[in-house]
Amino acid sequence: MARHILEVDDLAPGELKAVLELASSPSLPRVLDGKGVALVFQKPSARTRNSSEMAIVSLGGHPVVMRGDEVGLGTGRETPQDLAMTLACYHAVIGARVFDHAILERMADALDDSKSPVSLVNLLSDLAHPLQALADVLTLRQCFGRLEGLKLAYLGDSNNVCKSLVYACCMLGVSISVASPEGFTLGTGEILRAQELAAESGSGMGLNVVATAKEAVAGADAVYTDVWTSMGQEAEIETRRKAFKAFTVSESLMAGAQEHAIFLHCLPAHRGEEVSAEVIDGARSRVWQQAANRMTSMRGLLAWLVAENHGERRQ
To answer: What's the start-to-end Cα distance of the chain, in Å?
Structure first.
């Protein structure tokens, strides 16, 4: 049965480290030579589409990109299960970027029920963004030469990006402090899962939920934020601007972090809202390295999945 990656903790800690090792390799075998990879975009994206297509090409594969409405996803024309089974007839891997995480679960269940050798990868859903988390921790490792013992501050909406990042940090020994306004915090179940992952890692590092941006940033090696209003939340713009106004990452806020601290953002960014132009365009910013790592991390994950599904796991 093929492995599916719907959230970053679908990988065990050792597997996550193996993916990062592959992502760090300057060259990888063309494990997708002669194979197709389906990329379904119910929700559009610049970084996800470009990084995924180029990762597939670098491994010798052929990406086939489809909008959700082209294949009936979310229109009622075809069920997610039938779509998954159709795409599995042609492709080695299926990636899907969707509004509702339940769509991915239905697709994965159909593939599992049929014992299909085809993996499903979450390119983003409302609940998780595992590929962004892979790029984030890869960037941290490149910048600091290690992950264990680092302190990361995340400010703003405890959304899908935050959740996946928290899980990855807890699996890899990174201490992460999350500061969000009331009503936009991590849920109890997410906090408990993060604590479980931190305990399983044995590092003694994990999640800290704090009240203010200043508290989160204190002593941090890296400071991370995301947009206050994501795609599909446009009706909430003014409400969110008021709620998040104390969470802008400014030069004065960055001064509370370590002198060597870097700034991260998953993009797109709104200068003057969640981050000042001076920070995101300044010397501490690593956002373009982080964006480039969307491709290298996807390449590492695909190489790992192909090897795993064909019993060629690297030691």
So the answer is: 20
Omega within 30 of 0 (cis) for the link into 268: yes
As to burial, measured by CB atoms within 10 angstroms (0-12 exposed, 13-18 middle, 19+ buried), residue 12 is exposed
List all residues 6 or more positions away from 145 whose beta carbon is below 8 Å from its beta carbon: none
Check whether residue 303 and residue 236 sit in a common domain: no
Average pLDDT, the chain: 96
Q: Which residue intervals of the chain are DSSP H helices?
A: 13-24, 46-58, 80-88, 101-113, 130-144, 160-172, 188-201, 213-217, 237-244, 251-254, 277-280, 287-309
Query: Which of 89, 97, 101 lies closest to 46, judged by CA?
Result: 97
- What's the CATH number where 229 sits? 3.40.50.1370
Range of the domain at 67: 8-128+294-309
Q: What pLDDT score does 154 carry? A: 98
Residue with tokens 């959700």: 68
Q: Report the length, in residues, of the chain.
A: 315
User: Phi and psi (nearest 5°) for 41?
Assistant: -115, 90
> Where does residue 85 rank: exposed (0-12), middle (13-18), buried (19+ CB within 10 A)?
middle
Q: Are residues 123 and 137 in the same domain?
A: no
pLDDT band, residue 233 (cuts 50/70/90): confident
- Same structural domain for residues 138 and 123? no
Cα(105)–Cα(112) distance, rounded to whole angstroms?
A: 10
Do 161 and 271 fall within a single domain? yes
pTM surpassing 0.85? Answer: yes
Task: Return all residues near 45 (Cβ < 8 A) that are at least 6 apart.
Answer: 97, 123, 124
